[in-house]
Design goal:
35% of the residues lie in helices and 23% in strands. The chain is α/β, with parallel strands linked by helices. The model is unreliable at 1-5, 272-289 and 300-309 (pLDDT under 50). Bound molecules: S-adenosylmethionine.
Length: 309
Amino acid sequence: MHYRIDFSRISTSYKDHSLVQRSAADLLLNLLEIGESDDVLDLGCGVGNLTEKIRKMTGGRVVGIDPSEGMIREAVERNRGLDITFEIKGVEELDYEDSFDVIFCNSVFQWFRDPQNAIKNCYASLREGGRIGVQAPAKSVYSPNFIEAIERVKEDPETEVIFAHFEEPWFFLETAEEYRNLFENCGFRVVLSEIESVKTEHTPEEVFNIFSSGAAAGYLNQDFYDVEIGADYVKSFERVVNDAFLRQADGRGVVTLIFNRIFLVAVKVCHPVICATASSSPIISCSPVLMSRSVTIPDSTSCFPMITA
Ligand SMILES: C[S@@+](CC[C@H](N)C(=O)[O-])C[C@H]1O[C@@H](n2cnc3c(N)ncnc32)[C@H](O)[C@@H]1O
């Protein structure tokens, strides 16, 4: 079955409510260390708030793509006058070849229906030595807070019958090793793959808004139900989830929101055999949240020419 994920419904409020996506995005931007002349593709750019940030980091070409018409409309509107190309396009339709130094993919990977094909398209779009940075929710329990709220939806008399017809659209792997293998099987050299349990504190209302800015695009999307979902169901669903977040608040009225997130950086290098003796230079260092670890990006310029005996 082919799904078209439509974020248009939430595009106008996305920038204000996507708090979690943004803080994790800053980590990913730090990891990628975009150079001043890098050509960058913001894959699944949403309303383009991070594309705007990227624009300030490089004098190179900046392109944002997203399959959601509403998101791109908003992105174009918000970034008028900036030299950014926005296109309505999903990763499935990526038709660039050796065109970018960096692909930035923040809070999008979980939506890919065919991740392997998506990675192959990214590989083709990057220049040799180019890198992709992915940050996305990981593990089936991607957020214990959200999963607990969904357990309530499953049990509530107003939502249980229809929710039983929900088919989860997301792609999650359980370990950093599995993510690493997925990228390495497509030819990338993975220089960082870690699942972090990221904790942030919010009011229940903020948590509800965060839920609405991402997960709701799946849970309240007609495409993922095989029965009709009406306005009453949406209203009841939102009530149950909202109540769950209110109950998760501590004595201070604060919810500790936990998200398991994969942080992955991978480089397009020439064939591993050819690169076997290539030198490496440390050009990326992780943020403190990623335990101040350093990652090393292979220097692709020192690859030897292919010898065909
Ligand atoms: C949670 S938003 C993240 C937006 C932005 N990257 C950010 O971090 O603020 C997820 C975005 O992924 C986009 N998306 C979903 N499926 C996609 C696909 N197959 N290819 C590219 N983008 C996709 C959605 O339209 C949506 O704008």
